[in-house]
Amino acid sequence: MRTLTALDPLRFAGAILFIALWQTATLVVSSIILPGPLSVLQRAVADFWSAPALSYYGVEDPSLFANLLYTAENVAIAVLLGSAIGVTLGLLLARIWFVRAAIDPIMMTAGTVPILIAAPFLLIWFGVGRASAVSLVAFYVVVILYVSAQRAALNLDAIYENSALTLGAGKHQMLRDILIPATVPEILGGFRITLVGSWGLEAVAELLGSQSGIGKILEVLAGATDPQGILATLLVLGVAAILADALAAALIARFAAWNFAAR
Question: Could you give the CA distance from residue 182 to residue 166 in angstroms, rounded to a whole number?
């Protein structure tokens, strides 16, 4: 039986190595260009609950926490909405080959559209605000989970479905007792990948016109040429993404414990 451990020494070693390289780089690069890890951490702590300077740049709620919360809400809405659509389409079309043959090229092409190309169209259609950012992230989540769910269904050995049909199983039973349980682990793996990537996509979407969110803060700090503030904001965003991934991993391990136990 294989178990998942919450604490991985290699992850800590990688983080320590990254910080050490960062600190070493500050010895040869001016702190104006590359602030040190400690100063960035202090800035993140100082600005987390209150950052009055941000109010001068038009940020509605001048604190990293409030804007991180806005970004997190958008990520949650986009991931849940995109997952529902992508997984449903992927599982259904995996069993309807002629529809899949027509839809697959469209989905694959849509997935290759750069975010900076798609964003202006969504801004025109949905305006500046939450709807455009959520739509942009959800769009990419749909594409990734559509592919993940479809491949999981296509990789399912036909012997299981054939055996169920032999025993008189109907379509609903096939879906409930064979297809969904067999594809859940692979779909959840794809879900975890999209969750991690959605934080970065959401920040980029907010860069292009949002009035709130981590992306908005990055935009105003870049305009003010404040590398320490930018790195502090990225640190907060990165920690949030790591915590969300850890939570998702724990839920996946619990929800699909039978799968890990079988390996």
Answer: 18
